[in-house]
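User: I'm new to structure prediction. If I give you an amino acid sequence, what do you actually give back? Let's try with this one:
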Amino acid sequence: MYNYITTNLTQIREKANNPISELYEVKMFIMNQLKGKNIPQHQLRKYYPNIHNELQKSNSII
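Assistant: Good question. You get back a string of structure tokens that encode the predicted 3D arrangement of the chain. For your 62 residues, that looks like this:
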């Protein structure tokens, strides 16, 4: 799994024309990897409150 993720992130970095498109492609890759995974939000909120808050902010913008 680690090799798969690092390989794909390296490919995204090599193909990106600019930092904004690279960031977007990385975000889409991660979202596709997490799609269908059951990640309880209460655990995220409890153990990683900063990440949870950032995700909440970004979800309210989108």
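You can read the tokens as a compact description of the fold. Here is one thing that stands out. The chain has a mean pLDDT of 84.
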